[in-house]
């Protein structure tokens, strides 16, 4: 039995489409941003990463709706998107004035943490082309009338400017009209909201968008800061995990938003930048609450984008018609893929399985696989891995 009802694949041009900003990520590797003399360049964005993961890991037909300033940086990011196999036909190009006074492309400087040294992310994304889109910038009916099974966006794009929530709402209304399922990753980032009303504005926007959502994704901080739900016993630093308390909060979320069909979240306790505890909770109307096993003291190489990979794995399972309990049934066959599937695909498949049925997880070395999940091997937008 399907957990969510979906449009038939044969009637759709796309399995999934994401709406959000795609930035040029500049990565100093093991070095520091303030002292490095070289960066590796990748593309990345919370919403886009999900489309890339679904395309590269699972071979689904995906596209991204975004906008770039028409210059060589924008074309570089477009080229990186093309390498990932995500359809670019819905990208809008905005005239560039030569210095970025009127519109520009976003940059994201990110360095991994280690031990007591926390990860550092410095976004240079003000006044970007995609942040200037408005509710009437995109003909959503023209997109969704082609047939789209799944639409994904999230709180990062919602907080990018004062106009982006209207873009999301317009997309969601059209998606609903055309029978497309909607997922939304809360992804609370204080820096995005600080100049446009702070946490109060974030909650106002997210609570307005939540009634359109079918599958809500987020961690314990996201649900607290973005929607205003409290988790009893959770520390203010969001570094303690209490499954029972968080499960109670999920029940409150469902009461407030009865339209939600699935709620999924990763739970993490941070011992250091290199050591985390990992677990997850998934809820649906049919199954109620499902708790994963707690994986303690997992070694992390780079956790940036791991939540997006979690979303990709979950959405793939739902698009594939698997029930939350039934997602584990293919695990015994999946190990045969190790000989011919690339590492990213294996990790993402196992992420979906680990979260929903960890006791059947065939790799006993959970610390190893979880480290991979947090690493650049699992960061959907980091690498182009050839088959």
Describe the fold and architecture.
The protein has 387 residues and is an alpha/beta fold. It has a single domain (9-115, 122-374), classed as UDP-N-acetylmuramoyl-L-alanine:D-glutamate ligase (3-Layer(aba) Sandwich), CATH 3.40.1190.20. Helix content is 33%, strand content 20%. It contains 13 helices and 15 strands. The chain has helices spanning 46-58, 72-83, 140-144, 155-158, 164-177, 190-193, 198-209, 220-227, 243-256, 306-319, 331-334, 343-356, 366-374; strands at 14-19, 23-27, 40-44, 62-65, 67-69, 92-94, 107-111, 120-124, 148-154, 181-185, 215-217, 262-270, 275-284, 288-291, 295-299. Strands 1, 4, 9, 10, 11, 12, 13, 14 and 15 form a nine-stranded mixed β-sheet that branches. A four-stranded mixed β-sheet has the order 3-2-7-8. A two-stranded parallel sheet has the order 5-6. Helix 1 packs across helix 12 (343-356) and helix 10 packs across helix 12. It is globular and about 55 Å long. It starts with 13 loop residues before the first strand and ends in a 13-residue tail after the last helix. Mean pLDDT is 82; it is low at 328-387.
> In CATH, what is the class?
Alpha Beta
Q: Give helix and strand order, one letter per element, not per position.
A: EEEHEEHEEEHEHHEHHEHHEEEEHHHH
CATH superfamily name? Ribokinase
Helix content bin: 25-40%
Please name the CATH architecture. Answer: 3-Layer(aba) Sandwich
Structural class: alpha/beta
CATH fold-level assignment: UDP-N-acetylmuramoyl-L-alanine:D-glutamate ligase
- Domain module tally: 1
Shape: globular
Overall pLDDT level: 82
Distance between the termini: 32 Å
Distinct helical segment count: 13
